[in-house]
Amino acid sequence: TYTGADNQLWKFEAVGGNSRIVARHSGKALDVQGASTANGAAVGQFTAGVGANQQWKLSAP
C-alpha cells in the first residue's frame, strides 16, 4: 500500500542523455546488478555512478 513514505519515493536525475533513478530514503541508484543484459536480471540499490547499468531511458507507451 502506498503511504508516501521516503522508502517509496524516487527522483530522476539526468545522466548521459538518460535518467538515473535514485531512492529518496537511501540516496542510492536503481542498479542492474553485474551490468547484466539478461531477461530477469536482478535489480537493486547501489551507490550512484555513471555506468550504463544505472542509466534508464524513459519513453511514452
Give a structural overview.
The protein has strands at residues 10-15, 18-23, 29-32, 43-46. It is globular. It has one domain. The model has no long low-confidence stretch (mean pLDDT 96). It has no helices and four strands. Strands 1-2 form a two-stranded antiparallel ribbon. A two-stranded antiparallel sheet has the order 3-4.
Task: Characterize this entry briefly.
With 61 residues, the protein is mainly β.
Strands, helices and their partners?
Elements: E1 10-15, E2 18-23, E3 29-32, E4 43-46
Antiparallel strand pairs: 1-2, 3-4
Overall structural domain count: 1
Q: What portion of residues is helical?
A: under 10%
The proportion of residues in beta strands is 25-35%
Radius of gyration: 12 Å
By helix and strand content, what is the structural category? Answer: mainly beta
Total E-strand runs: 4
Average pLDDT over all residues? 96
Cα distance spanning the termini: 25 Å
Shape: globular
Segments where pLDDT lies below 50 for 5+ residues?
A: none
Number of helices: 0
Order of helices and strands: EEEE
Outline the biggest β-sheet.
2 strands, antiparallel
Strand order of the largest sheet: 1-2
Core attributes:
61 residues; mainly beta; two-stranded antiparallel ribbon; two-stranded antiparallel sheet; globular
